[in-house]
Amino acid sequence: MSKSYVFPEGFVWGAATAAYQIEGSPLADGAGPSIWQRFAHTPGRMLNDDNGDIACDHYNRFRDDIAIMKSLGLQSYRFSISWSRVLPEGKGRVNQKGLDFYERLVDTLLENDIAPVATLFHWDLPAALDDRGGWLNPDVADWFGEYSEVMFKRLDGRIKRWATLNEPWVVTDGGYLHGALAPGHRNRFEAPIASHHLLRAHGKSVQAYRAIGQHDIGIVVNIEPKYAASDSAEDQAARDRAEAYMNRQYLDPVFFGKYPEQMRDIFGEAWPEWPQADMDLISQPIDFIGVNYYTRNVTRHDESSWPLKASPVRQPQHTYTETGWEVYPQGLTDTLTWVKQRYGNPQVFITENGAAFFDPPKAERGRVRDPLRVSYLRQHLRAVHDAIDAGCNIGGYFVWSLLDNLEWSLGYSKRFGIVHVDYQTQTRTPKDSARYYAGIVASHGARLIDEDD
Ligand code: PNW
Questions:
Q1: Which neighbouring-strand residues pair with 326?
Q2: Residue 163: which residues within 8 A CB-CB, separation 6 or more?
Q3: Annotated binding site for substrate
Q4: Rounded to the nearest 5°, which phi and psi values hold at 298?
């Protein structure tokens, strides 16, 4: 007998985006520049010299985009707020017009019965704050608290689910350790400091929320389950380092008030000690974890890989996406059951899951065929259902992404959308995957049994 894939009542279906990746008009209506605006205009940083000046022009077309969400039957939309639209200098003076944009967005979502989920920080730090040291300046936690408070005061109640940070691991690994993402530093002394102040900023935001907010606040992390390439002690230890570094570096402090032991092995003398008061700030209770899942990692010991001494092993029997990520749906079930066991079955939302595959730059007669993405979604949604069967407390699923968009330093070369964007004309075309996903949403998962791969 085949399994039923109907999801529990109240399970939320949505799609996700981030401000700098879709909005365009980064300096409109009094906004201050962000580090991504600056990075994207620094020669050599972005593939094909792409930038977010126009992106999907969502700043002007958000009503059309909400109409698309409505037509797909989406129940929720996860977006991010650009800090420097609201506070052009990052702190102090509030730019009412920036706030007004997010208010219009939220009100239009609500008019269409789409529940807004807001991420306060999806990588676009105000450039003015980077000039003061950015995530390396301890004061950044207070600046983030101040910004959070402005948003909660204006929009809590209309927004009932808030995320403080998106993927702090990517911010420090890409922004401060390896330098491929803004602000583009490459410094093993800086990365642990940035991590810590990101977590303190999260803590300040949660604190502000408890004083003002009435609903739910959490943090979004990327998790990539790590499997040892062999049962040798060396490979097992490499796996543990990789897991501590990517999957536990932020969640352990938030849930247990302490960093994984392996952090000191990885960073050596560059790993600092922090006061207990910081750890108490960081470990305040939260209401949910947002999990972003794309792929897994089979890990082997590798002396030459800095600073982890661990490298991924390619799996030739499996499909890889255009960003070079192995398609491994079981990893999502494993991730969700790992979170359940390690962190005491907290409420989890899958806040991102999706794939870049080659899609044509133009729709053909109103259609974009993306069978690999359809299959990716089907398999991963089944994996989510398996985790629910295993007792995981999963509140909803957000596909990454609603629209093709600026894939950070890879520019527009990678398409993650379920809706195709023709960047020349800004024409939107729901891909086959969008229609497929709409069918899943309408049947609350039942349609997952329709096809047999
Ligand atoms: C996420 N990794 O980034 C981001 O939240 C999105 O903004 C982005 O567009 C999406 O995933 C697709 O890349 C990640 O190396 C970047 O593990 C890198 C990793 C994970 C997530």
A1: 320
A2: 78, 117, 118, 119, 120, 217, 218, 219, 220, 290, 351
A3: 21, 122, 166, 294, 400, 407-408
A4: -95, 125
Q: Where are the beta strands (DSSP E) in 333-405?
A: 348-352, 394-400
Question: In the CATH scheme, what is the homologous superfamily, with its name and number, of domain 12-449?
Answer: Glycosidases (3.20.20.80)
Angle at 285 between CA 282 and CA 289, to 5 degrees: 90
pLDDT, one tens digit per residue, over 123-167 is 999 999 999 999 999 999 999 999 999 999 999 999 999 999 999
The conformation of residue 33, written as its DSSP 8-state character, comes to: P
Catalytic site includes residue 352 = yes
> Which structure tokens are listed for 214?
């009435």
Do the strands 394-400 and 348-352 form a parallel or antiparallel pair, or are they unpaired?
A: parallel
Task: Domain ranges for the chain, please list them.
Answer: 12-449
Please, which residues have CB within 8 angstroms of residue 38's CB and are 6 or more apart in sequence? 127, 130, 182, 183
ipTM of the shown complex: 0.92
Q: Say if ligand 1 is within 6 A of residue 224 CB.
A: yes
C-beta 17 within 6 A of ligand 1: no
- Model confidence over 73-118: pLDDT tens digits? 999 999 999 999 999 999 999 999 999 999 999 999 999 999 999 9
Q: Where are the alpha helices (DSSP H) in 268-313?
A: 276-282
